[in-house]
Specification:
The complex is a heterodimer. Chain A is mainly alpha-helical. Chain A has a single domain, classed as 434 Repressor (Amino-terminal Domain). Chain A is 59% helix and 6% strand. Chain A is built from 5 helices and 2 strands; from the N terminus they run βαααααβ. In chain A, helix 2 crosses helix 3. The longest helix of chain A has 11 residues. Chain A is globular, with a radius of gyration of 10 Å. The model of chain A has no long low-confidence stretch (mean pLDDT 92). Chain B folds into 2 domains: 63 residues; 70 residues. Helix content of chain B is 75%, strand content 0%. In chain B, helix 1 runs antiparallel to helix 2 and helix 1 packs antiparallel against helix 3. The longest helix of chain B is centred in the middle third of the chain and has 30 residues. The C terminus of chain B is likely disordered. The chains are: A mainly alpha, B mainly alpha. Chains A and B meet through helix 3 of A and helix 4 of B.
Chain lengths: 64, 138
């Protein structure tokens, strides 16, 4: 699944570690989501959306 | 913050110690006993410790963040599927007299499949052992 996570993170000058700390996950999880290797669970997707003040659909886009 | 090995010792250490102790006692005592129900019970002494270890590992896994949980579950699934297939194949070959395989090979095969699955899944997610465990506790 594609996501704008890296783009949104960089806009705020956050490192992967910073973002991971705020979401309560590991830095490796953030890296895996950004590289499309891992799709977040629904609770995590909601946490990400809430953190960036955007909808889940605005951040994540299933690949066609 | 505790080092990863210290955390592991606290989480799984007591159960592992109980397992090793009961295996040793069971092996030594059951050898001296006459065949029968009591000998079977003594041989089964490690079972509660095995259940305790399994529970400790599950509790430990639930404390991991979701990617680490996914890695462990994928590893277990792949390792079980592959090792089960291999063990059944070896059992058939052994039954047909094609090869002579001791039962201990099954345990080693399962362990090898688990290690192989760990490497394969971690490569997929780029989640190496050098990564600090302190980062993936939730």
């Amino acid at each position: 699944m594609r996501s704008r996570l890296r783009e949104l993170r960089v806009e705020r000058s956050w490192s992967q570690g910073d973002l991971a700390d705020q979401l309560g996950v590991s830095r490796q999880t953030i890296n895996a989501i950004e590289t499309g290797k891992y799709d977040p669970s629904l609770p995590l997707a909601f946490s990400i959306a809430r953190l960036f003040g955007a909808s889940i659909e605005a951040i994540f886009d299933p690949e066609t | 913050m505790r080092k990863p090995w210290q955390r592991y010792l606290i989480d799984v250490g007591p159960a592992a110690l109980a397992y090793f102790a009961t295996v040793i006692v069971s092996a030594l005592v059951s050898k001296q006993m006459e065949p029968g129900v009591l000998r079977v019970l003594v041989a089964a002494l490690p079972l509660p410790a095995i259940v305790w270890m399994a529970r400790a590992e599950i509790v430990r896994l639930r404390r991991r963040d979701e990617l680490r949980q996914r890695i462990e579950l994928e590893t277990m699934t792949i390792a079980f599927a592959v090792s089960f297939g291999l063990v059944v194949m070896l059992a058939f070959l052994d039954m047909n007299g094609a090869i002579d395989v001791p039962m201990s090979v099954a345990a080693m095969l399962m362990a090898a499949c688990w290690v192989g699955a760990q490497v394969w899944v971690r490569m997929r997610y780029r989640y190496w052992w050098s990564h600090s465990e302190s980062e993936d506790q939730i």
